[in-house]
Specification:
By secondary structure, the protein is of the alpha/beta class. Helices cover 40% and strands 17% of the residues. Bound molecules: zinc ion.
Length: 379
C-alpha cells in the first residue's frame, strides 16, 4: 500500500519536466519543490512561523545524523515525534545519515552490515545499519525516510564506485524488508525512498536504477551529486537515471543546486530538490536576487537605499534597504542572518513556483530560455 501518493498534473511536451502534487500525511506539496534544510530541526535564523506563513514552505528536510547524535531519536519519540518536538505541522523528509557519516564523522568502517563511525561532537563510536536508520527515522515520525546508502567521494575508481553502488542496493533491500515489517503495525504513514548511487559512471547509475525499481518504492532519490564533480556530470547522471525510474513516482535529486541550476534539474524530470546553499550563503552575505547575486559586504551597497531585490515580495525586500542590510552584516548582527535567509529561501521557492506555473501552462521551454530564468552572473 502506498504511504504517500504522487499525482502528475502536467508534463512538458519538450523536456522531461512535470508538475504534480505529492500527497503526504502532513499536507499536499506542489511539485517541483525545493525543500529548505533544517539540519538541527531548525532552518538557521528562521522560526517555523516564518517558514510556514511568510514563505509557505510545505516540506522541510532534517538531518538524521545530527538529530540521532543530539538530542537523540528516543528523546524525540518520547516528546511526540519530530513534528511535535519542533512544532512543524507540515511535511518532513529526513535523510538516512549516510551522507553526513561519509562527510563529517571521524574514522569509519564500512562492512556488509553497516557503517561504524565516530561522532563529530565527542568522538563516541556509533553504528548505522540499514535497519537502524529506518528505526531512527520512524522514531522521528518522518513523512519521507531515506534508505542508508554509501555516498563515495569524487573522483573514485569505477571498481570502488561499483562496490559502493552494489552495497547501497543490498542495503536498500535490507532496509525495505525491515521497513515493511515495521510499518504494518503502525497507525501512521511513512514512505521510504531508496537512493540511486554509482558515482559519475552511467553504466553503474543504470544498473542501480534497475535494481532499485524492484522495490516498488513510493519515490526514488538520486544521490552522490554535489560531491565536487563538474556540473555537466551531475546533470548527465540525472539524465541517465531518470528514464529508468517509474514515471508515476516522485524523483528527488539530493543536495542540488544553485538558482540557475534548478530549471536544469526540473527539465530532466526531477520533482524534489534540497540544498543548504540558500540558507548557508545567506548567512555569509551571498544573496540571490532576480538580477543576479548580491555580495552585500561590497562598498557599493553602503548608501544604497533601494530594496535588495525590487522584484521580490519577501518581508526583507519589502521593508529594508541594501544599505541597512549591509550595515547589519558588517556589524555581525543576528538580524542579518534572519533577514537574509528569509530572502534567499523566498527566492528559491519563487523560482520553483514560477517553473511549476510554466509547466502547467505548457510554457516551460520558454521559461528556461527567458529572462525569467535566474541569471548566473554577479551584480
Ligand atoms: Zn526578498
Amino acid at each position: 500500500m502506498r504511504q504517500i501518493t504522487f499525482e502528475i498534473e502536467a508534463e512538458c511536451p519538450v523536456t522531461r519536466a512535470r508538475a504534480g502534487i505529492l500527497h503526504t500525511p502532513h499536507g499536499d506539496i506542489e511539485t517541483p519543490v525545493f525543500m529548505p534544510v533544517g539540519t538541527q530541526a531548525t532552518v538557521k535564523g528562521l522560526s517555523q512561523r516564518d517558514l510556514a506563513e511568510e514563505i509557505d514552505t510545505r516540506i522541510l528536510l532534517c538531518n538524521t545524523y545530527h538529530l540521532y547524535l543530539r538530542p537523540g531519536h528516543e528523546l524525540i519519540r518520547q516528546l511526540g515525534g519530530l513534528h511535535r518536538f519542533m512544532s512543524w505541522p507540515r511535511a518532513i523528509l529526513t535523510d538516512s545519515g549516510g551522507f553526513q557519516v561519509f562527510s563529517l564523522s571521524g574514522i569509519r568502517k564500512i562492512t556488509e552490515e553497516g557503517v561504524v563511525f565516530h561522532s563529530h561532537l565527542n568522538g563516541d563510536a556509533h553504528k548505522f545499519t540499514p535497519e537502524s536508520t529506518v528505526d531512527v527515522q520512524l522514531a522521528f515520525g518522518s513523512d519521507i525516510l531515506m534508505a542508508l546508502d554509501e555516498c563515495p567521494e569524487y573522483p573514485v575508481s569505477h571498481e570502488y564506485a561499483r562496490q559502493a553502488m552494489q552495497r547501497t542496493v543490498r542495503w536498500a533491500h535490507t532496509a525495505y524488508q525491515h521497513y515493511r515489517r515495521q510499518i504494518t503495525a503502525m497507525p501512521t504513514k511513512h514512505a521510504l525512498f531508496p537512493i540511486v548511487q554509482g558515482s559519475m559512471f552511467p553504466d553503474l547509475r543504470r544498473e542501480c536504477c534497475a535494481e532499485l525499481t524492484d522495490l516498488d518504492a513510493d519515490g526514488y532519490a538520486i544521490g552522490g551529486l554535489s560531491v565536487g564533480e563538474p556540473r555537466p556530470l551531475s546533470l548527465q547522471m540525472v539524465e541517465v537515471s531518470e528514464p529508468l525510474l517509474p514515471r508515476d513516482r516522485p524523483r528527488y535529486a539530493m543536495g542540488v543546486g544553485m538558482p540557475d541550476e534548478l530549471g536544469q534539474y526540473v527539465a530532466r524530470g526531477i520533482d524534489m530538490m534540497d540544498c543548504v546553499l540558500p540558507s548557508r550563503n545567506a548567512r555569509n552575505g551571498y544573496l540571490f536576487t532576480s538580477q543576479g547575486r548580491v555580495i552585500i559586504k561590497h562598498t557599493r551597497y553602503k548608501d544604497d537605499a533601494g530594496p535588495l531585490d525590487p522584484n521580490c515580495p519577501c518581508y526583507t525586500c519589502r521593508t529594508y534597504s541594501r544599505a541597512y542590510l549591509r550595515h547589519l552584516y558588517q556589524a555581525g548582527e543576528i538580524l542579518f542572518a534572519s533577514l537574509a535567509t528569509r530572502h534567499n529561501l523566498q527566492r528559491y521557492l519563487d523560482i520553483m513556483r514560477r517553473m511549476r506555473q510554466a509547466i502547467l501552462l505548457g510554457q516551460f521551454p520558454e521559461f528556461l530560455a527567458s529572462a525569467d530564468a535566474p541569471p548566473a552572473q554577479m551584480v
